[in-house]
Automatic annotation (TrEMBL):
It holds the Pfam family Glycos_transf_2. Transmembrane segments: none annotated. PANTHER family: GLYCOSYLTRANSFERASE, UDP-GLCNAC:BETAGAL BETA-1,3-N-ACETYLGLUCOSAMINYLTRANSFERASE-LIKE PROTEIN 1. GO terms for molecular function: hexosyltransferase activity. It comes from the Eukaryota. SUPFAM superfamilies: Nucleotide-diphospho-sugar transferases (SSF53448). Residues 9-68 form the Glycosyltransferase 2-like domain. This is Glycosyltransferase 2-like domain-containing protein.
Amino acid sequence: MNNKTPDVSIITPIHNGEAWINDCMESILGQTALNSLVVQVSIYDDASTDKTWELVQIWKTRVETIRNISLVASKNTTPHPKGGKIHFTTSTLFLNIIYGLLPIFPPYDQIIGSNFERLPKDSTIRFTRWANSLKEEQLYRQIYTSHGPTLIMPTWFCDRKVFERVGGFSESGKGTPEDLIFFYRHLDHDGRLFKVPRCLLVYRYHPGATTFSIDE
């Protein structure tokens, strides 16, 4: 267990994720950043009705025996991140995303993202092609399409001051596009965007994702 102030907080909202939370946590533990950085995993259980919360508690116990990582969890409210840098994600699979983004060291007014792969590979082909092909100027010009944020939330990496300036995520519940609201508020505060043109994350597709409960 590590009681040091974390360098990076990984915020992970999850709803009924018992089928993939183990893969998600295993991928976090596989990050090479844990060799030199203190990482806090902040899990937000968004009203799950399956065994997600039970699995989170098992992982919390396991993580207590591992150096350089801690896990905090809450139900229906977002844990307050303590890390100087924040990575937002979902129950996805990681490549080496923390080390892939950390060297860029995001300024206080910038959200950094990256390209990604889909799992299964043939899911949301047009969306994936669109998001991965965006150039710097298009990150701003195409913010009002039906695709949502031009940087997908599971790749977001930013300074904690970005999170505090925006005021965190909306907690209005299912059907609310929390990531899009956060994204627009960030831009309303003259926030900047940057994308690393490399694949640093495997983004899992599943029909029950919160994304599909949101009306255009």
